[in-house]
Amino acid sequence: MRKKVELQVDAKAIKDLTNGYPLILKDAIVTNEVSIEEGSLLHLVDKNGGYIATGYYGAQNKGIGWVLSRKEKELIDVKFFAKKIREAAEKRADFFASEQTSAFRIFNGEGDGIGGLTIDFFNGFYMVSWYSEGIYSFRKEIYEALKEAVNTRGVYEKLRFNTNGQYIDQDDYVSGEKGEFPLIVQENGMNFAVDLNDGAMTGIFLDQRNVRKALRDSYSLEKTVLNTFSYTGAFSVAAALGGAAGTTSVDLAKRSLPKTIEQFSVNGIDFESQDIKVMNVFDYFSYAARKGLKFDVVVLDPPSFARTKKMTFSTAKDYPKLLKDALAITNDNGVIIASTNNASFNMKKFKTFIDKAFKDAGTRYKILEEHQLPEDFTVPHNFPEFNYLKVVIIQVIN
After folding, report:
1. What DSSP state is assigned to residue 394?
2. Which of 149, 152, 143, 91 is nearest to 123 (CA)?
3. Entry pTM
4. Is 378 helix (H, G, I), strand (E, B) or coil?
5. The PUA domain covers which part of the protein (predicted)?
6. Under a CB-based contact definition with an 8 Å cutoff, are residues 63 and 24 in contact?
7. What distance in Å separates the CA atoms of residue 386 and residue 235, rounded to the nearest whole number?
8. Inter-axis angle of helices 139-149 and 78-91, nearest 10
């Protein structure tokens, strides 16, 4: 039997929770410190003991758990999870029917009613990511519910909840057919190779789908494209398929080289005609400036935080400098695709970073497009702070 804990919530938090705010914040709880087991059900009440919501306890960086239901009598069981997953899958009916795209998110955590849990679809295979021990304690019910709600070819999982948010290394296979990797998936007609059992990453960030399409369809033809922090080169593939005159992919990780070669190859692109560099992006900026190299399009999609032997980089602090370095090697009237997935600031704040960089460089600019999370990455209604992705496509005006 799962433990139930009653917690009193302060007045301000009651208003937010009643309006649909999904996260249970630590400082919203009035009850004196009690030790609570991960996965315990939380019965949230006001000062008179009146019911507010039911949640689960799962500590993660921002809160102590998530709201699951606002109906006092609702049971949190297989039926509950199956209904949530089925409703989420129905919302993505167009993706399931698409002949151009076979990789997308079918369940986006709090946006679909269960914070701390995401489920991605890869050509019949499902990948479940768990973001706290609390939600992971429901795995038996959730896997049963997944089987009930959708047809799974095979299921893999990622455990992302150890003490400092790092991926927990394990065999990620759960059930069903074992995948033959790399598995080839489609995205807007492009091919991408993914591996669901190879550490924390799969080979593609699904939240950038619309941005890759924009790069391919509107900004690549006969252009030179620099893809920084390129990971497996997905943006470079999009640019090459959009008719780029040439692509350069730069990433510090050694495995980015074979992975990028693989992505070009599954699209029938001669990787030898593309430039792939394994080096620190900031060193590459200096190298390109020394050599007088300039690009028509520069893609900037850095990790929120990175540390190398020589430096630490944080988007919240260093994005203006990153943009300024990119500007120095961008052609007149060139385009910069500036992106961040740092959830600690919003789009308005991100645009101040852009403004600062261009002012410091004494250069004018025009915003051509803005993107946030694509439609399969549902976010809670009324709470835009959960829409972590911010992408601004900027034209440099000289």
Report:
1. E
2. 152
3. 0.97
4. coil
5. 5-90
6. yes
7. 24
8. 50
